[in-house]
C-alpha cells in the first residue's frame, strides 16, 4: 500500500480508523460491520492489528 492510499483509507474508512485506535491504545475494542461483508472489514483489521510478538489469538496481544 502506498502512503497516499494509506492516508485515503484512514481518512475514509471507519473500520480502519477504529483498528488504528485499538492499536494505539485509544480504544479497547472495535465494533464494525454495519454494512458490507465480513471479510472486507477483516482485511483492514488484520492489516492494522497483525498478530506478532508471540501472540496466538486475536484480542490477547497486548
What does this structure look like?
It is a single chain. The mean pLDDT is 81. Helix 1 (3-12) packs across helix 2 and helix 2 (14-24) packs parallel to helix 3 (38-48). 52% of the residues lie in helices and 0% in strands. The N and C termini lie far apart (25 Å). By secondary structure, the protein is an all-alpha fold. It is built from 3 helices and no strands. The chain has one domain.
**What's the overall geometry?**
globular
- Helix-strand pattern: HHH
How far is the first residue's CA from the last residue's CA?
A: 25 Å
* Count of the separate structural domains: 1
Q: Find the count of extended strands (DSSP E, 2+ residues).
A: 0
Mean pLDDT, to the nearest integer, reads 81
Low-confidence stretches: none
GO molecular function: acyltransferase activity; malate dehydrogenase (decarboxylating) (NADP+) activity
EC number: 1.1.1.40
Protein name: NADP-dependent malic enzyme
Enzyme class: oxidoreductase
In short:
This protein is mainly alpha-helical and 62 residues long. The protein has 3 helices and no strands.
Amino acid at each position: 500500500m502506498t502512503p497516499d492510499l494509506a492516508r485515503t483509507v484512514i481518512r475514509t474508512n471507519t473500520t480502519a480508523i477504529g483498528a488504528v485506535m485499538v492499536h494505539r491504545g485509544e480504544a479497547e475494542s472495535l465494533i464494525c460491520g454495519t454494512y458490507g461483508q465480513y471479510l472486507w472489514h477483516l482485511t483492514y483489521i488484520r492489516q492494522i492489528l497483525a498478530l506478532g510478538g508471540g501472540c496466538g489469538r486475536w484480542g490477547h496481544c497486548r
